[in-house]
Design brief:
mainly beta, 8-stranded antiparallel beta sheet
Length: 222
C-alpha cells in the first residue's frame, strides 16, 4: 500500500551455492512493478553450463551482476569467496547493511573492499550503494548496473534506467575521481524477453583507494 512503490534485494552469500552464480554483494531494485536494476538470472542450459567453462558465461559470472571488477578481475568461485556481515541495522524507516566482500576477489593487492547498502523508506525512498576499496598498489576499479531495460545519461553524473513502466535515477559519486560510463548488451542465450544490458562505471586511472557510490531513487511519473 505504499504511495511510492520502491524496493530492493540485497545479496551476500558465497560463490559455491546451489546453481551458483558468482554474485557476492549484488543487488536488484524494483520500481513500480518492474525490476529496473536486475539480476540477469540463468542462461538456457547447454553442455558449457555444467562444464569447467560454466563461468565463461557473462550472466553466470560476476561480469553480469551489479558488483565491482577489481584490477580487471571478476569474482572467483568457491565457498571461501563470501560476504562477511560487518553491520546489519534494520528499522521501520531505514535499513543499513555493510558487507566485507574482499574475499570474493583473488587480487593480492586488494586490502579492503566494503559494500554498504542504505535503504530508506517513506516519502523520499532511496537505495544508496557505496563501495570503499583500498589497494597496496594502484589498481583499476569498475562497478556496474544490470538492466533488461534502457538507460540514458541525464548529466555527467546522473543516469535514468527504465523498464516496463518503472524507472530510477542513479546519481554517481566517485569522490572526485574521473570516470567513464559504457554499456554492453550481454550476448548470451537467456530465457528472458531481452538480453541483459551491463552499464559499467569505471575510474579512468588506477588508484590506491576508491569510494564510489550510487544514490538510486524512483523516477515518479507525472
Amino acid at each position: 500500500d505504499s504511495k511510492i512503490q520502491f524496493a530492493a534485494v540485497l545479496k551476500g552469500g558465497h560463490n559455491a551455492e546451489h546453481h551458483n552464480h558468482n554474485d557476492v554483494g549484488s543487488f536488484s531494485v524494483i520500481a513500480g512493478k518492474a525490476m529496473v536494476i536486475c539480476d540477469p538470472g540463468g542462461e538456457i542450459y547447454t553442455a558449457r553450463t555444467f562444464s569447467a567453462h560454466r563461468y565463461d558465461s557473462k550472466v553466470l559470472s560476476s561480469y553480469g551482476h551489479a558488483v565491482p571488477v577489481i584490477g580487471g578481475q571478476l569474482q572467483r568461485t568457491g565457498a571461501s569467496a563470501r560476504a562477511a556481515v560487518l553491520r546489519a541495522d534494520f528499522g521501520d524507516e531505514e535499513d543499513t547493511l555493510v558487507l566485507d566482500i574482499r574475499s570474493a576477489y583473488a587480487a593480492p593487492e586488494l586490502k579492503r573492499l566494503a559494500r554498504t547498502f542504505v535503504f530508506r523508506r517513506g516519502g523520499s525512498p532511496a537505495l544508496t550503494v557505496r563501495d570503499e576499496a583500498s589497494f597496496s598498489e594502484p589498481s583499476s576499479f569498475e562497478t556496474t548496473l544490470i538492466t533488461w531495460g534502457n538507460w540514458k545519461k541525464l548529466s555527467e553524473r546522473e543516469l535514468l534506467i527504465s523498464d516496463e513502466g518503472g524507472a530510477v535515477r542513479v546519481k554517481i559519486d566517485t569522490g572526485g575521481e574521473p570516470f567513464k560510463i559504457s554499456a554492453e548488451r550481454l550476448n548470451e542465450d537467456v530465457p528472458t524477453r531481452t538480453k541483459p544490458l551491463r552499464v559499467a562505471i569505471a575510474l579512468t586511472s588506477p588508484v590506491k583507494a576508491a569510494t564510489v557510490s550510487f544514490a538510486i531513487t524512483p523516477e515518479l511519473s507525472e
